[in-house]
Amino acid sequence: MAQTELTDKRLAVVTSILLNPAVWSILTLAILFRVFGVSLNEALEIFIPGFIPVFLYVVAAVVLTKKADIEFTDVRTRPPLLVIACLGALISTLISARIAPGVNFYLTRSLIVLVLTTAITFYWKISFHAIFFSMSVLTMARLLHPAFIMLFIFLPILYWARIVLKKHKLIQLLCGTVITFLVLL
Length: 185
What we know:
Shape: globular
Order of helices and strands: HHHHHHHH
Distance between the termini: 43 Å
Helix content: over 70%
Oligomer: single chain
Low-confidence stretches: none
Number of helices: 8
Number of domains: 1
Structural class: mainly alpha
Strand content: under 5%
Mean pLDDT: 88
Number of strands: 0
Largest sheet: none
């Protein structure tokens, strides 16, 4: 492998990690909880039902049984994870309706995106990196300041990284972004 290809691949891996769906999901939830004045106990009550089952499944699939890689690259490994994520997100959304109605608005939209893209994943691979990055940027722009929309300048870098790593085709990345826009705007 040429030095440039190796450097590109390393940069793509770092980019992929920094723009990982888990990272952006946690960041977005932290912002939501902060903006809407949700206490730590309330935040945990909302967050844990959605997070723990997904985390346990990832550990089981990746670490214990080695049936999937950490990014669930093979489309056949994604449905169980996504169904668990949808059920957890549904529970978290229902809990947030009682505890934090402002947060519930955003969690409901995120749940809709997750359910739609999970249904698509049963037939075709779509980029969850693009989906979660787009959800996070749109949420920050709406809640914190419209200038956060400028974070979309990183979207081509994300696309490049996922393509260099041979995780996605451009159409899969674009679809993830477009579906998110359609639901969240």
